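Hey L., structure's done. Input below.
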Amino acid sequence: MELSEIWLAYVNEHMVADAGKFPPVEITASQTLERLFELHPIFTSRWDAIMSVKYTDAFDEEANNALAHLAMTDSYAAWDELSVGAWRVLVERLQYCEVVLVANMAAAPNAVLNHLPIGLTRDQEARALLLRYLLEQGRIIDRQILPVKEHTRVDDVARATLVYPILFNYRHYIELTLKYLIWCYGTPGDGSPFWKSHRLGPIWNRAVVIMKDYGAWEGSGADKTVARTVQEFGRVDPDSFDFRYSIDTDGKPMAPRLSDLDLVALREVMAGVEAWFEGTDGYLDHIRGSMPY
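Output:
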């Protein structure tokens, strides 16, 4: 079996029996990045050791075998025995593929890049995409995009840049959802001052006023948690600019702001924010539907 076909064998093993009867799951560049980012803790827990060695293709075969073993067992357990050199190869491939995905996302945000059969769990989708990218284009790294270098503090910045696309999408989701609530449940023209603004503070404040008008705001519990999350995104990226790039307009890295970020915890927080937004939308829609015209 060719290395580039291993991911297909993996999905065929784990998809539901009649998956061919249903349309495949379409996955865009940003959705691909989200799934790959969910695998970062596998690498970040070993980051200092990985970055202490130079990248060399002498460990390609070991890295390929590790990926093939993952496909066969659906487990990373055997990776504990990998050499640091093989881990470095895997990281280099992953970083390169993510850089390319970010470029694809910028060029065509809604373009579908991958199709997966139904029946895979979220973790299996992530593994399938990892296998595909690291055993296909990840094996041919353009060093002009991802240059070889010794581990320095600059590498810590490079590590942090991997989180920027997902943070940008999370922030963008919050902004668009708040504008949607204002547009749907505010008065006509209510949202016009906010359409061209990306500042979360004023947008959030207006949405809260609308929720209070509908009796959908208590200011405690989940309301307070979501408010704190929105305020934090607004604080670290006031104008929806910082997360688009890893350096500011003066060429200074912005990674130190994110040095303690836990992507897994953030994913859980954002799942709660999403549930809160959906519940709020449903409640507001119910209240508005019961109002006399």
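The longest helix spans residues 263-289. DSSP finds twelve helices and two strands in the chain.

-- N.
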